[in-house]
Amino acid sequence: MSNITKLPAFGDMLNAGIQTIKNLSTRNTIGRTVFYREFEKLAQIVSDHKDINYISNHDIRHECHDGSPCYDEIIDLILLCLSAMGLVKEDKFSLVPNLNQNFANFITFDEKVTPKNIIRLDPFGKVYFWLAGNNFGQYVGEGIRNNDYIANFQRFDSKSFSDLQKVNTAAYGKNGDALVSHLIDETKRRTSIFMNNYADATVGSDFVKVTPDMIMSQLESLSPLQFEWFCLKLIERSLEIESPESNLTSRHTGRSNDNGIDGLIIQDFPDGEVHNYYIQAKLYSTGNNISNGDLRNFVGAYPPQKTNHHGIFITTTSFTKPAQDYANSTDSHSLILIDQMNLIELMMQHKVGLKEVNARPKLLLDNDFFDKIKLY
Known about the structure:
The protein is built from 17 helices and 14 strands. It is an alpha+beta fold. The strands form five sheets. The protein has a five-stranded mixed beta sheet with strand order 8-9-10-11-12, sandwiched between helices.
């Protein structure tokens, strides 16, 4: 083996994957062979990179002493990221460019992906959800019972991403690659929040340990106008955390039974760039899902300019399949859908309506917050 001992930085390789899909996006489908060939040119992959191995759990069980290629695992991670971000619809034998509203996020992007700028490509953290699902799937695939893993935080923390962490060390040295480490750590952090808060409820002082059902009960106690105000504050907080350098101006524009915009947030950046976020919030009961007609009415209420104008439709239920298909296929507007589970995750992630304390349980319902919302 030559003196090449590390793979190119994962952020550079992920960017090469993004540029490869952009370059080949005129094709209806992209064969894996074509993708690998064009990707390896951009990422400057050489044969020595493919000779870096690690010993997986599978290799240990089957007494394989040569190990498995780190490069194969890194490519799989790149494809997972591209799929989770919405740049491609992954197929078993080919990749399908996903030229929907998400594609606009990638058009001008051409730089190393880092823990700080990945949010521009994946503003709502879908990569972490996909990684969590993949991690659970691999672990259960090894024959470990679900309840022996999911319900045991210490086991989760010690066993999570065991192979990917080995890949990270073998491919990038003792400290690993910064972006790979970030993906592992942030996925574990987000998953642990759910694991730590999905157990049976307990009462502590003036707060109640949060579960999804309790969060929904609290939201359902709001009036439609109060829920609109709540969603405005949630998105405002999300944008504030994601881009602390920007200035935000928000206003509640909705009225009861309106069919237009419930809230507007204007985000000004130091370089003069301005983004407008148009919010529609629906406090619906179970089974009353959002239709494609609802989305069409919403989209007609804000400008068809995908770079700087973004629609965010939030519901306490979910979106019908035709509505999801419409959102994925619309070329005229930037449209983001937030259903019940995404809504709960955003609340947990940014601690809106929830409060973190220095004792167990860690994350509790913030009743004071909701009392103030109900004054609106």
